[in-house]
Amino acid sequence: MHFSNGVIAAALAAMATAQKVHVVSVSSANKSLAFYPDNLKADVGDMIQFQFLAGNHSVVQSNFDNPCVPIQAINSSATGMFSGYMDVAASESTGMIPTYTMEVKAATPLWLYCSQGKHCQAGMVMVVNEKYVVLLLTLL
Predict the structure, then answer these.
(1) Could you give the C-alpha distances from 140 to 60, 94, 118, 134, 135, in angstroms and in order?
(2) Is 64 in contact with 111 (CB distance < 8 Å)?
(3) CB 62 within 8 A of CB 112
(4) In angstroms, rounded to a whole number, what is the distance separating the alpha carbons of residues 42 and 69?
């Protein structure tokens, strides 16, 4: 079989821009109120898969100034993400782990929290691309 240089170059370019999947554990076997990791760097186009391991949790987008409030409540024109509540106990009987996957659409920081009960107030928050904030503040 013979491939032209253009076909090979296109295939290599596609591999270079392939999506990366980042896995975030929501809680842990000891039912901790945390995301693991709670800070990650992801490129535009990457995917983040949240794996719900214990308890009932959610993942909701907020902003830095209002970490426990849905971003739509702060800015009605914003379109934030919400995983819905994930019932881990219901999935355990089938041997499944509930997951929610989202695409990173911008390089700017993405602030996320769990809206179940007082989980956010207990520190169940995370950030994607935090370094962008530090870089931006140093440029000002």
Answers:
(1) 29, 52, 35, 10, 9
(2) yes
(3) yes
(4) 23
Q: What is the pLDDT of residues 89-138, one digit of tens each?
A: 878 778 889 999 999 999 999 999 999 999 999 999 999 999 754 444 55
Instruction: Report the 10 Å Cβ neighbour count for 71.
Output: 20
Distance CA 140, CA 86 (A): 40
Amino acid at 35: F
DSSP tally for the chain: helices H, then strands E: 4, 10
Output the pLDDT for position 8.
55
Residue 74 clears pLDDT 80, i.e. is over it: yes
Do residues 91 and 1 make contact, with C-beta atoms less than 8 angstroms apart? no
pTM: 0.79
